[in-house]
Fold this protein.
Amino acid sequence: MENNKNINRREFLKRMGLLGGAAFATTLLDPITTAAKAVIPTKAKDNPNTKMTYRVNHNTKDSVSLLGFGMMRLPNENKIINQNEVNRMVDYAIANGVNYFDTAPVYHGGKSEEATGIALKRYDRKKFFVATKLSNFRDWTRQASEKMYHDSFKKLQVDVIDYYLLHSIGGNGPNELKERFEDNGMMEFLLKEREAGRIRNLGFSYHGDVKVFDYFLSQHKKYHWDFVQIQMNYVDWRHASITGKKEEADGDAEYLYNKLTKMNIPVVIMEPLRGGRLANVPSDVENDLKQERPDDSIASWAFRWCGSYPNVLTALSGMSKMEHLQDNIKSFSPLEPCSERENAILAAAADKIGGYPTIPCTQCNYCMPCPFGVNIPGNFSYYNEKIDKRIIPLPDRSAKDYMDRAADFKDGFHKALSLDEDANKCRDCGICLPKCPQKIRIPNQLSRIKEILNA
Ligand code: SF4
Ligand code: SF4
């Protein structure tokens, strides 16, 4: 397979689907053209055996693997991380060219950073980039925030953090920057840390609407954001609206990506598979994709689509199984950018998937635990699966198959989740609401499930 660096510019754009007629692709020509000057695909010099595609961060000249290892869904048994398996997966990832590892103090109940540190400590520090975050969601005080920052170094067993993010900002409006990071002096502190070299790149991960996004970017002169992490996949490109009312939750990735690209700020992608759902698409979409590339996994489409945007530094995947890691590495070793035809197929798939009344849960677990025991992501995952399989929404109560479909839903439901975890246990206390980066009205959405369970 030919590497990107060996193809000329016109051919590159053609493969990206950026020359020719598809509206989906051509509307992106300007920003991508600009970005191509900023972030150039290259091959890692220190691992000549890998076929992995790399992107260069123009700020620090880091050569970053297009696949980043998200350490938020690590292999575990009864919530205890299986360190041996983590080590085995990290070994495989590094051997196959992955060099970006992304964690956070809140992942796995605070255990992810430690597990990441143990796995990476076995390697020469120059072999990997580590990213972590200031997840000061609950306590915004300077003392607690600074402690969280210093703890990350200890748990990760490093002296320098390559990519440091203000974790999940945007959902609480423009004042969040001021209240969580400025008033307590943390922004000033982090800028000094960057100056001292303990942070190499400073950015933020974003969950919110475009107005707040614009506000954060308007602070670029003051803070110089080295990178920004956004939720981007072929569905959220134009179907990110959570409530269905565009004016309330229009966090479309198309807007976010294009804005960052125009500002020459590298993009790190989170949720390329939309919480795993783009690995398990509705059957009509699956048929379309399989017909086009029978030997490729469904997930590979989502990864190739993400990687086709040249201002993407890395696409993070939270992998809990070796086979997922292997498949994802394959998708980027090397990247075969989506063709114009493939972009059009994915745009049509996005329209179909975006039209399904699923709940936009990415399985991030931030809302957990629920004090009443509801397994919130588990309920939503099961519900979405049944939507994708067209078991629900249930037809009119008078329809012949109404009770059969409800029974099918209930039967599988209690195989997947225990009675103690089901939506009926929700007491509408609202504790989970501010924790959800996707702004899902959790109790309202659980009511949709309750309705079927109690049919
Ligand atoms: S609103 Fe419902 S799901 Fe959310 S924390 Fe309260 S009881 Fe649990
Ligand atoms: S409901 Fe929200 S916070 Fe909870 S797992 Fe889903 S996306 Fe994450």
User: Anything to note?
Assistant: The chain has 19 helices and 13 strands. The first helix runs from residue 9 to 15. The radius of gyration is 22 Å.
